[in-house]
């Protein structure tokens, strides 16, 4: 049997999804919540099941080449590690900015920065691709799902 990048990616995602599902079932519930249709374990459990299903689908549907060279299977050629590392730094900055400037503003800057790193340079597109999405996601979380998102320390000082 020949393992390709698709197989390895599917196996890694399968392991991650199984571990996520295991830890999702360790979430404690308040008394009486086990009888509710939606509780703290519901969404993480559904995400774990979806991840397991998609990774199994990836494993089954992965293209097997009859004659694959060893250098083709695990080649890192074509991966831009500079952009990958910059995106990882951007994610860390986003996590740090959440506490200080709040969800909405840090999400807008994170999305705009990510788009900019990936090659989009037009300010109008950066604005239109990040602000409506971040605002809509904020609206869904805070207004529809009634999830509290702290405004950030910066806004508390003002």
TrEMBL record:
Which Pfam families has this protein been placed in?
TctB
Tell whether Magnesium is among the UniProt keywords: no
Keyword line: Membrane, Transmembrane, Transmembrane helix
Transmembrane region(s): 7-23, 43-62, 74-94, 100-118, 125-145
| InterPro entries, A to Z | DUF1468
Presence of the UniProt keyword Oxidoreductase in the record: no
* Domain DUF1468: residue ranges: 8-149
Official protein name in the record = TctB
- Species source reads Photobacterium gaetbulicola
């Amino acid at each position: 049997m020949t393992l390709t990048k698709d197989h390895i990616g599917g196996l890694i995602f399968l392991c991650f999804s199984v571990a996520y599902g295991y830890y999702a079932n360790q979430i404690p519930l308040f008394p009486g919540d086990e009888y509710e249709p939606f509780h703290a374990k519901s969404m993480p459990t559904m995400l774990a099941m979806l991840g397991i299903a998609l990774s199994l689908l990836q494993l089954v549907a992965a293209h097997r080449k009859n004659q694959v060279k060893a250098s083709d299977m695990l080649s890192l050629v074509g991966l831009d590690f500079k952009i990958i590392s910059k995106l990882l730094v951007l994610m860390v900055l986003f996590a740090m900015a959440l506490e200080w400037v709040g969800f909405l503003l840090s999400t807008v800057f994170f999305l705009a920065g990510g788009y900019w790193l990936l090659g989009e340079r037009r300010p109008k597109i950066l604005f239109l691709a990040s602000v409506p999405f971040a605002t809509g996601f904020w609206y869904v979380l805070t207004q529809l799902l009634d999830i509290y998102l702290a405004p950030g320390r910066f806004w508390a000082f003002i």
